[in-house]
Write a structure and sequence with these properties.
Structural class: alpha/beta
Strand order of the largest sheet: 2-3-1-4-5
CATH architecture of the largest domain: 3-Layer(aba) Sandwich
Radius of gyration: 26 Å
Order of helices and strands: HEHEHHEHHEHHHEHHEHEHHEHHEHHHEH
Length: 490
């Protein structure tokens, strides 16, 4: 793209001034519509060192109410960020509905630096590109406007600007060693940037190359492009998004009504013996998980009163409390609801070597949100593929993903509901919502069957825990966790 790029003809100064006034006014007007229509806007500035990314952001935000934007400078990842998936720190920055986030460099700079400095190439490079393209597509599919700018200057212009910065005591700090190396190896860098731009130039999030030699002209290009994109985004807000075909290998799952529950019991003495032995083994494995820096994600879904809490308690009873966290997932908070539905799970991912346990998960999208009308049909139908992509990202990061569905029958649930209702010490466990959900048992069963069928991948399969006898389910869960950790560690 860079090598074949033809810069637009720069207008006369008078025309630039007139168009800038118009674009600034339009930008101020449109930011109110963004707020009104609840469209989240993510603007990424990439480009050559000294091309003016930071100062450009400063000019753009003058036209926006400061209550409705955030600016983030994405410097080198911290030690904590390096222990998490590549996209973790970028997903954390996505804006709420009706707001802007401006990124001073981002996933392009980090990726191309790895290519230039660390030799990221071949299959690893292709995986990274696939991750980035999925990330951007998921944002735009979920209503985000993603606008990407590459600030372009020549080698001579870059050298001239850096010389000026280095000559002043107060500006020397702005020129880093990599910036000087980049200018010395301009041709090599241009080749890497050109390939990246081609690889990630998509119709839903295209690249806009900005001729950044003249600062007023560069500002006009950016503002007019932003205005145009926002206007199109407002027009397309209600359009449905195509449902993508699943491309990941699946594991065949039984329908819930075919899961055999009878006879899945364990005697108390045997339970106590196995529990002690399995927890001891899991405790040993947790130490190895930490030493080898393997991230572990254990998720629980299941019927109300199926025994998820007690099951989780037997897992955590074997773990070092410094190395795990349990996330009970309830209805999203307002700031969570205002973002991509996976955002609140991305931000709860463990560091490598740690274990995250989710009591309820992202699968609420295709169960409660689907059945209660909290999202559109297009939203939940798209979600199967989006969640497979999310888990593939975690798998490629190196995470062990263990997904449990805790299964009971309708009669067992009624018996447990009644016990909770009649026992003062357990009444806090039962709510009106539990009874309402029970009335929709058949609808939920159909939704769960579809979920199991479409999201049990080879890298993150579902495991069904027969839990009419809770003790049986606990032992089975411990055995599965141990088996999966041993496979990963070996």
């Amino acid at each position: 793209m860079l090598k074949s790029w033809n810069p637009p003809e720069m207008p006369e100064k008078e025309e630039i001034a007139q168009r800038l006034d118009k674009a600034r006014g339009k930008m101020y007007e449109l930011q109110m519509k963004i707020k009104e229509h609840k469209i989240p806007v993510l603007v990424l500035f990439e480009g050559w060192s000294s091309a003016g990314k930071g100062s450009m952001i400063g000019k753009v935000i003058k036209n926006i109410d400061p209550r409705f934007f955030k600016v983030a400078t994405m410097s080198a990842p911290t030690e904590d960020e390096l222990r998490r998936p590549f996209l973790y720190r970028y997903m954390r920055q996505i804006p709420e509905q009706g707001k802007f986030t401006f990124l001073d460099s981002g996933w392009m700079e980090e990726t191309t630096k790895e290519v230039l400095e660390d030799g990221l190439s071949g299959e690893d490079y292709e995986k990274r590109i696939d991750s980035i393209k999925r990330f951007e597509r998921q944002l735009t599919d979920n209503g985000y406007l993603v606008v990407k700018f590459f600030m372009h200057i020549s080698k001579d212009e870059q050298a001239k600007r850096m010389k000026g910065l280095l000559s002043g005591e107060d500006t020397q700090w702005r020129v880093q060693k990599f910036d000087q190396w980049q200018n010395e190896h301009y041709g090599k860098c241009e080749k890497v940037y050109d390939r990246y731009l081609k690889d990630t130039n998509m119709s839903t999030s295209p690249w806009y190359i900005v001729d950044a030699k003249n600062k007023k002209w560069a500002e006009l290009q950016v503002l007019e492009t932003l205005v145009s994109n926002i206007e199109v985004g407002l027009q397309n807000q209600m359009h449905s998004v195509p449902i993508l075909q699943n491309v990941f290998p699946l594991v065949k799952m039984p329908k819930l009504q075919d899961v055999e529950l009878e006879g899945k019991v364990i005697e108390e003495e045997e339970y106590r013996k196995e529990l002690k032995e399995l927890q001891k083994r899991l405790r040993e494995l947790h130490n190895r998980v930490y030493r080898k820096r393997v991230p572990v994600i254990i998720t629980y879904e299941g019927w109300d009163a199926a025994g998820k809490g007690g099951n989780i308690k037997r897992i955590t009873g074997a773990l070092d409390p410094r190395g795990f966290e349990v996330h009970p997932i309830a209805s999203p908070e307002p700031h969570e609801k205002a973002r991509h539905y996976l955002w609140r799970f991305w931000t709860r991912l463990p560091k490598d070597g740690h274990i995250a346990i989710f009591d309820r998960t992202w699968y609420g999208r295709v169960m409660v949100e689907r059945l209660e009308g909290f999202c559109s049909e297009n939203d939940w139908k798209r979600a199967y593929n989006e969640m497979n992509e999310f888990e593939k990202e975690l798998h490629d990061w190196g995470a062990v993903i263990i997904k449990f569905w805790v299964q009971i029958d309708k009669d067992t649930q009624l018996e447990r509901f009644t016990d909770r209702q009649n026992n003062p010490e357990k009444q806090w466990k039962i709510t009106d919502e539990d009874w309402r959900n029970r009335e929709k048992w058949d609808l939920y069963e159909d939704a769960v069957n579809e979920m199991l069928k479409k999201t049990s991948t080879t890298f993150a399969p579902w495991h069904i825990l027969e839990s009419v006898d809770k003790k049986y389910a606990r032992i089975k869960a411990l055995k599965i966790v141990i088996e999966e950790l041993e496979k990963a560690l070996d």
